[in-house]
């Protein structure tokens, strides 16, 4: 065989779960990375409603799909983000947003992340992909001058807020796969190093490999995979395209909406950008990653109904198996 | 659907129009960008011969092809080119060449361009693609020293010769799409700026976007599309390939014939070169271009019968539709 | 001669103004770009204290230094920044910080900027360089999804807060030179376009050209100079060095302190980085900029006492005069 | 048609010849480049065993495969290599290795190469592809200081050892196609120049074009093809992939095994690397090469059963025919 | 010492020869490359006027300057250029321009070039640097389609016009050093190959190495030096600067005047551009070039009085001597 | 002050030690990195001859030079190199070469390296820079196929031969600084990792940082410094220049002698090549390296008498001191 290829349902949560399952199955996906928003996977109902989990499994089985991971980026974002504002209100369940008091939002989101671990265990998966937000991301430009103690406090706050969450993950036998991404506590190589240090490299904290966030920042996905090879819990094939040699576009994006040709980079359909996928897949083979490969599809310039099956074909083609013997073995076949 | 994909017939004018139509249709093209040479579209006959235009339309209909534009590069070239010589004689109808006296040639060519506008209107299309030639292109190297007044005179001569032509275009409700190209009054970004200024940005003068001429000169097709977005009347998917890191080949081409591997760049089958097509198509979507996409196929190293259908498939694949809603809309589907 | 070369005193404000003046003069600087912090230029005292301005001028004259501009980055930053926190407290005068209530801070800072225009006029300069902060910078990563209306509101808030400030600038005959910089309302090419639009391109808002912020974002300083040539009020020769091909360092800097070799870019002594200074100076000549060239010196890896005179020599060498006649005029001297 | 596409059997010699022939045929290959090891082509048996050659031909015919060349890299390597050690023992027939005395090994290998020419002639092909080894390759780093006379002696030794071999090739009407490759007497452009000089440019010594060895060394395959166009006897489409911008991997490979992601370059399935194949094929057309195109498939990261048919499709697609007339002929079709 | 460094007087011909000599001497130049225009060296007077040559020599001696070469670019240009127009009139002596009839101009220019060889011999130098013009340069863009016979005729015309000129050079013991340059019969590597072929590689035709014309065309000055090493008669250190990654500027220059920042490349003061001078000088050493190094100074953005001495210092610094023994000889000094 | 700058005497060993000392002192060097060949430092005499060491110190003191390290590259090379041949004979003392039997040479060289540690201690320095040779370097091209066990055996042999040598270093309180270099057991990043592992990361084995060997192999000197920051014992400022975009030159050097322009890279005078020195020096500051900076001068294209003082000036200029406080401290000086 080789690794299963799944579709992340996060960008399809405006559609009913069953419809997404049906389409993914028809396109040939092997499974889903299910988002914990929309009606795709409702953590509260999963823990309280009889048969909720069973019915989800039935949908998957009906469409011959597997599921190896849940994803809860949106709630995770709110656990230690700063500032908390209308952007969060737009993506959170009303009961988590509540009155919008920032600290209350963060605490309710943390509770819900703990529940996500519990629900994942019930659902029979041992990984949750997601975000953490960050107390210090907004200081990224280092002006006004950001004291180093402020940075240290940020990592400490992350640890203080997430250690109790990860305790529940440990209790449930589930691991959290942090997607390294701008606005998270870890958004590049060295912040990943420091975030892992902040929680003492505890086993519960792993990584979701999504290289679309690396290429425009300029660090190497293969180096990331190799150095964090024992932390890679999941892979998202999201794609980015850089266009920055025209004299005017900038890598910070100019507050321009996705899809605007003046942006210095953009998300595009997997295979249409600058992630060195072939090197990534070869390295995934080399480090022995055998979990699912998930297509996270975002492209403001292409209809998703065209993109999703095309991305599957692209990934399928790269998801090849390494050989069992060295090729130059054939040279010594003499006797 | 999306934009129609047409085949430019200019490089096929050694074949009868009907045969080209038949092949294009069989390959799956949606229509033709018809050249005004060979028997493909004869301006004089179109204006004088009863049924000429109707018979052309019938051929198109028979093969289920549309036509949205005529192209008259060769005659346009002669309208204000300098010097006029055997190269022009080779590409002009004998009655336009006449005795070969340069000024006579230019005037007859201008008359014929006016007729082209009239014939286009009769034919039911509102755009003519073409060239202009240039009184100053031959001074491009700036040696012997070229006084700036000589350059200014060149743009003025272009305006003087073309304003009367564009008057007829205006009268006919047709616009002229200048293909920015070496040897034309506009061959790069800044000469395009200046050519538009020369005619006071009159509406009749638009642009045919053919990025094959941009990549070896080193300016960016996406920037061109964005900045001239209200002038882009037509798109030609011609392709160029640059090969200039071998120490010996030069970007000016060394007077070597097309296809010679010592050249620093060459025209190749669409998709085999260095035009950033994906960025171009995304930008065409972003600026709302909804006209035809025409394959202008030139490749001295490949049989055209192989290349034309392959280029169609390549372009068809890029000619995708943008989505109707933002992808991150799905994140806020909670309530 | 040519343009005067000044030293920006902002990074030297821990030293008494007179000492900075003495050193700058000894190194050979022609003048100072005086910071409105430390004891270098105190806006409140300048407006209220008899002789304050005269004494400043005397210091300058004593050291044979000119001054063409005041700079008030720190107060400007607070006028419409978000969030307001300890970083601002560290850089603001106590009376502006007050109780730290964000809206109060912003208003007091705006008052002080108006006073800065008045003080500049009194001091005899007609330009103030500075920052604005930004209501939307912190959303730069576009996640959680940032609605376009939120971006529009940000520019509008900038206009609403700054139009009254600029009214005072107009009254005083002083112009404000915004330094395009991350965390400001304009941090790259396209945000500059939009910030100028937001205030209706009113004359009072110009630009301080500091290309150190451009090179790691990937947009071209020469293009910026050319396109905004009628807005360039002042030039800061600050320098940046990019180091992003090592597989691990990222352009966002990883929250690492200045000078850490793991950062993807850093500020360095002018001439030690990747700003294309020669092209910048040639373009400054071409657009007719004739104001001061100011060395803004920041380098966490070099002692400033070494750097400041070296930077002066570097800039002096580039600050050459263009010729009065075309070189190829000599070819036609025959008759 | 166009040139036949063959599969080099060297990396498949652990399988019986007939099985390789069957698979190659099923995948669609036009023929085989047969390796003289394993049971694929045994030079000694070919010269001594009645019907051996006829039976090989019958296998080919049964599977509708052609053969235009034999390959004997392994024996060739031993003819003038230094040092001779266990690596050679692993790839040589026991009777050639003998007691392993280096000079004896070299002489027996030379004898066998002469026999290879004879066997090739019997088999009906007029080219043998192969290696030569090198007396001086191991000094490539130039430290300890390598006297130039030592280098000269190396080329002379090559000539002394190979002229007698090439005499037999001449006698048999067969030419030897040296694969330019590290560890051979010629491993790059300038060593090829010098190796040809060493044997006085005798006709019997030609070249096997295998650009996989060029790209990581940094010289241009197209330049190689053009300058040695009258020596190109055969083409191997082997592929290499370079990955050297991560700060740590080096082009010399760090003694790491093939397929290790820390290597600076690697062999990969044809079409997955950095050889500029399109330019190579266009140049092969331009220089009139009309022999077979052989897929030499090596990829430590991909199963060969997947790779071999994919590589064929890749090469088939590039193996296009040039046109018979110039495309701009169509512009002059007027009269 | 090493090679003398001279100043080319062509761009200073608006000044009297003696003044240029005085300034060059004061700046420290070792000699002059004297232009045959202005009053610098008048070929007709040199051949007819008693003492003209002696007086020139006296000026040189007075200022302690050598001279090893005359330059006659302007007249050379007219010998086989096409078209001949006002640009030529501006740079030719009135008696050569005459009535401006093109063929008459070409013939008179050819006569004057023959005289230049004679005058050079009289003056005691054995090389003349210059241009040739070209009958086919203006067809460089290959549109309208340029038949290959037209190109061939162009080279033939060059040979027909220049062989008689070179006969006189031979008679006088003088060689002509063609400066490879756009608008000349040879403007890049491959046109140089063909121009040399056109005159049968006769010894009288050599080359003036001026790499400023190579860098924006994209071919390698070191390769040029190596391959034409037996033809390099003289060296001009002219400099070019390329700026083509801003999305809008193009390598053909947009008819914009020198010094305009929108141009894709420009001439600049030696050392301020992209010629790989260090590699060039090392290669000049390697090929044993021992003639003068001449600074040809052109920079539309810098005052020449600043540039000329700075360029001398730059070149002086590169004009270093190679060692007499190998550095690793020191490793073997043991016994 | 800052770190002392020394001259490595290895390339000057054809001259008497005292003469080198005199010249280095006159040029302004602070000290010498003394080579253990020529008469510069003779290990055997140092250990046996009374006053030898004292007299060396006197020479240094007379010329006001310091010495912090001895270098014994040549003997180190022989300790575990393979093959041993005339190249070694040329660089070894006769008594070490002896009868040239390889194993005997290796053992005598090992003895002499132990003595070098003893002599260094006597001489009062605690570091010896040098080479090790390698049992497996010659297999670097991996053809004939190199079994991984052969590679493992190579590292083991290095450990077996060097552990006893390093024991003596430990006894003497001296550390060995291996120069990572082709033909050594460690020649790039990953081989350095493995060599350190092979000896169990024992403290006695450190590194000599010489980035000239890194740039043409393509790995990053700054990454090397950072990751091995606790092993950097010494710094050699040797320089390399890469020239590999001409289509023909290759990175392996084509067996061409140093200084030949056809080579793909070469050693050049420090500051004339592609080592990113500024980044290196900044990183040396960042990791707290406070030992000597040694100019190892090799340039086959420049006279060393010119190069050595120029290199000193170049290095002196980069050897700047970092500041004691953060630059943005000045922003908070308000209260």
From TrEMBL, chains A, B, C, D, E, F:
UniProt keyword terms in alphabetical order: Endonuclease, Hydrolase, Isomerase, Nuclease
Name of one Pfam family that matches: AP_endonuc_2
GO molecular function: endonuclease activity; isomerase activity
Domain Xylose isomerase-like TIM barrel: from-to ranges: 23-317
Top-level taxon in the UniProt lineage: Bacteria
InterPro entries the record matches: IolE/XylAMocC-like, Xyl_isomerase-like_sf, Xyl_isomerase-like_TIM-brl
Keyword tRNA processing: no
Gene3D superfamilies named in the record: Divalent-metal-dependent TIM barrel enzymes
Protein name as catalogued: AP endonuclease
């Amino acid at each position: 065989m080789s690794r299963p290829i799944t579709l992340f349902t996060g960008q399809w949560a405006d559609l009913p779960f069953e419809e997404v399952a049906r389409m993914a199955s028809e396109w040939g996906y092997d499974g889903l990375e299910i988002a914990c928003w929309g009606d795709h996977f409702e953590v509260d109902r999963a823990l309280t409603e009889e048969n909720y989990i069973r019915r989800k499994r039935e949908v998957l089985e009906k469409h011959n799909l597997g599921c190896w991971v849940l994803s809860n980026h949106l709630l995770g974002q709110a656990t230690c983000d700063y500032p908390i504002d209308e952007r969060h209100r737009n993506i959170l369940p009303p009961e988590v947003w509540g009155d919008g008091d920032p600290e209350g939002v963060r605490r309710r989101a943390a509770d819900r992340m703990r529940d996500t671990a519990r629900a994942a265990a019930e659902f029979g998966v041992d990984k949750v992909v997601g975000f953490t937000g960050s107390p210090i991301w907004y200081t990224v430009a280092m002006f006004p001058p950001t004291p180093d103690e402020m940075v240290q406090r940020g990592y400490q706050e992350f640890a203080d807020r997430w250690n109790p969450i990860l305790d529940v993950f440990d209790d449930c036998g589930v691991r959290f796969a942090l997607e390294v991404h701008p606005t998270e506590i870890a958004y590049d190589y060295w912040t990943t190093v420091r975030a892992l240090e902040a929680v003492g490299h505890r086993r519960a904290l792993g990584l979701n490999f999504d290289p679309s966030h690396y290429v425009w920042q300029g660090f190497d996905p293969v180096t990331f995979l190799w150095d964090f090879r024992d932390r890679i819990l999941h892979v998202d094939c999201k794609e980015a395209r850089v266009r920055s040699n025209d004299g005017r576009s900038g890598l910070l994006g100019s507050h321009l909406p996705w899809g605007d040709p003046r942006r210095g980079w953009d998300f595009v359909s997997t295979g249409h950008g600058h992630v060195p996928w072939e090197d990534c897949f070869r390295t995934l083979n080399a480090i022995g990653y055998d979990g699912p490969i998930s297509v996270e599809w975002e492209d403001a310039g292409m209809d998703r109904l065209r993109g999703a099956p095309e991305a599957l074909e692209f990934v399928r083609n790269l998801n090849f198996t390494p050989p069992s013997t060295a090729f130059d073995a054939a040279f010594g076949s003499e006797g």
